[in-house]
Structure formats: structure tokens, C-alpha cells
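TL;DR need C-alpha cells for one chain.
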Amino acid sequence: MTPLVLEDVLPHRGAAILLDEASIGDDGSATCIVRITAHSRFATPSGVPAVVCLEYMAQAVAVQASVAVGGIHGGWLAGCPELELFVDAFALGDVLRVQARPSTPPGHTFGAIRAFFCTVHREESLLARASLFVYEPPT
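>> reply
TL;DR here they are.
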């Protein structure tokens, strides 16, 4: 795993960056860490609502896409045909591992739309998974 500087691979800035760490695996997938604290964006006394992981996943996709093209590459979440949440919220103190890997078959393209499969784990427990479609404008 190659650790990355978030500001080098995300178009987000300041409080809009929800990830704490990011790295790229040998297979090109992004693995990101999110630490849930009382100061996390969207935190309530009971934690962060699980639906927020959709943005964690989207930022992990942005990390993967930026590394793949060699620089910050903006894009937009175009769709989420499948999202499964296995918890209602992430508890204060949770350390989440967010993974994003391209799932568009090699040799197939959908124009500027790319598909990704994303997961969120706490240790070995699967907390959420989703398929995302992302619009990536030409570079």
C-alpha cells in the first residue's frame, strides 16, 4: 500500500475532506481510513449516520481516480443503484476502512461513466457496501 496526501488526490478542501488517510493497493484499489469522533462532520452524540458512508465511498473513488490519471481528477456521483447499510450509525471511536475498486469490465466503457464497488468495514465486520456510478469528465 502506498500512503497518499489527501490534498494531492482529492478535489475537496478543508472540512469537506471526510477521510483521514488514503492509500492505493497494488491492484489499483483505494483503501481509506475514517476515524469517527465527536468532531467528525455529521456527528451526533450517538455517532455518524451510516448513510454518510456514501460520501466516504465517493471520496475513496476520487482517490482511486486521481491516482489512476496521475493528478486530481474531479468527478460527480452519478448514481448508486445498490447501497446496503448493515448498521444505522457509526459509533464514536469507530475506525472505518473504506475501499473502492473499479468494477467496469476491462475493455468496456460507458462514455464518461465509470462503475465502482465500495465497502466499509470496522475491523473484519462489513458495515456497508455499494455500487457507484461516477461521471468523470475527460481530462
